[in-house]
Amino acid sequence: MKEKTNYFEVNRATWNKKVAIHSQSEMYDLAAFKKGKTSLMSYELNALGNVKGKSLLHLQCHFGQDTLSWSRMGAKCVGVDLSDEGVKLAKQLNAELQLNAQFVCCNVLDTSSHISETFDIVFTSYGTIGWLPDLKPWAKMIAERLNVGGTFYIVEFHPIAWMFDYIDGKSEMKYHYSQDEVIYDEYEGTYANQDSKMVSKEYGWNHGLSEVINSLIEAGLQIDYLNEYDESPYDVFPDLVKTDSGMYKMKDQKFPMIFELKATKI
Q1: How far, in Å, CA of 133 to CA of 46, rounded?
Q2: pLDDT tens-digit map of 40-56
Q3: Which of 35, 145, 169, 213 sits at 20 to 30 Å (Cα–Cα) from 252?
Q4: What positions belong to coiled-coil segments (predicted)?
């Protein structure tokens, strides 16, 4: 486990650097967010509906925009993230916007060691599970933190998208669909500001849909649905085209770009 801890520490250092860049980026548009614009996308809004009065745990929340967006909608929220700087900014935004969300800095796999309460909803989205070497402890933690009858919802980039290396605006199939071996990537810039001179050093893992589904079932959750979509709400892959709906698609779409899954603790 010592080796995996080192992976997490490298990732933490990278995400700490990203916070300053992302909070100034057009993608995150913090000025509009502070004025009341939600950071949530149509998928999660449609899936979770009216959250007023519900308790919600947001896993891997970055600097808390989605957590605070759910809080604005009336949910009692707790956000968790690995990044000290992310949690620090999230707490500042929470105070500035006079909301009542709470934030905890920890490895998402250790959430149950830091949070004992259970929730009506556990939520995670867009670029989260690829940072985890094994989804079984992740799913076990989700089941531990859910109330009986509670909802788990994930919307995430499709595992096929992570089979490719995206370099200089080109994509090359390089990795296995469900790869146990760690993938190390080092590059300049971030998805929210590709012109940044920051060097990202990242360790990640690829997880196929069967691994996602089976880990949740094994943890005691009942799968309500799995949907796949040929579009992304974020312009984070090369040569995407914006559609009339405001989503992004590839010029020659051959595979889904995102999936969503909803499950219930039984």
Answers
A1: 30
A2: 999 999 999 999 999 99
A3: 213
A4: none
